[in-house]
Structure to design on (274 residues):
């Protein structure tokens, strides 16, 4: 009520609309988040919803989508969901169509899905693992961005975020091909951001460090692996998905209105670049 009143009345505090102080930076925006039924994607969907966006949840399994939508709806957020395996063209089409049908358009895309079918050094990767990794992690990120563009253009501006990894800067020895695929996303971010900058469409990237999710379970579940991994993190702990979703909310909000082509690292101090 306070937020609605502040928004309508344009009430400000220290030069900022009270509405945004209360956490409504994304009011009126529609966000599509891939791989958002668990882990980092779920946390991003939740945070964007908490900041006022209407959010389309998706992942490969219908029952995961139903569960995530149910949880977030019960938390008072405006979300809908649809099954979308990012490597299936018809699923991607259905994802964007769902957003338009339910919410009337799309302002934000967060491309978050990734796979890593094999463990090992980059030159040990099988051709099939390499193909799968590059198909899902890179090609589908490119296709999602390309296919969402007509919708974002209709809104005369918007924002795309790719979820990469700290491994894209400093390859993990056991995640060789995956690391290279995540490096490719930095290039995709740069190239797409330059093409779209004049249209008020910003393209940015997040490079998370090791975050406590199922995807990183091998690094935090056994005591030995945990100790080895923690020794690489100057802050001495794993990240929480909420520490990535807050970065994403910033990047897609007006608070980042002059930021495009950038990658924000959230890694607890793991080395990335100068
Ligand atoms: P997670 O907790 O294992 O969650 C994975 C999510 O992706 C689930 O919702 C899963 O649901 C969905 N999913 C998997 N494959 C999919 C596909 N092909 N199409 C659509 N949805 C798919 O993983 P996470 O750790 O949050 O990872 C999310 C992103 O963060 C990835 O890009 C990963 O590379 C990146 N990242 C993670 C870490 C980390 O330490 N966790 C670090 C750096 C970067 P369904 O099973 O229903 O499909």
């Amino acid at each position: 009520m306070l937020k609605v009143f502040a928004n309508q009345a344009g009430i400000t505090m220290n030069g900022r609309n009270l509405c945004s102080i209360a956490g409504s930076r994304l009011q009126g925006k529609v966000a599509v988040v891939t791989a958002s039924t668990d882990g980092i994607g779920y946390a991003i969907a939740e945070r964007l919803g908490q900041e006022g966006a209407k959010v389309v949840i998706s992942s490969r399994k219908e029952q995961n989508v139903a569960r995530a939508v149910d949880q977030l709806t019960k938390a008072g957020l405006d979300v809908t969901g649809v099954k979308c395996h990012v490597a299936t063209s018809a699923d991607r089409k259905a994802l964007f169509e769902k957003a338009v049908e339910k919410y009337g358009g799309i302002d934000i895309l967060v491309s978050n899905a990734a796979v890593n079918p094999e463990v090992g050094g980059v030159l040990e990767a099988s051709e099939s693992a390499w193909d799968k990794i590059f198909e899902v992690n890179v090609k589908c990120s490119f296709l999602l961005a390309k296919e969402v563009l007509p919708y974002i253009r209709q809104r005369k501006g918007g924002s795309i975020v790719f979820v990469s990894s700290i491994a894209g800067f400093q390859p993990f020895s056991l995640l060789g091909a995956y690391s290279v695929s995540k490096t490719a996303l930095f290039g995709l971010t740069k190239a797409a951001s330059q093409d779209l900058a004049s249209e008020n469409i910003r393209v940015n990237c997040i490079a998370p460090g090791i975050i406590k999710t199922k995807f990183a379970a091998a690094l935090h579940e056994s005591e030995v692996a945990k100790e080895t991994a923690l020794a690489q993190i100057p802050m001495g702990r794993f990240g929480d998905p909420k520490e990535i979703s807050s970065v994403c909310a910033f990047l897609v909000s007006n608070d980042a209105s002059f930021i495009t082509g950038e990658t924000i690292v959230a890694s607890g101090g793991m080395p990335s670049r100068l």
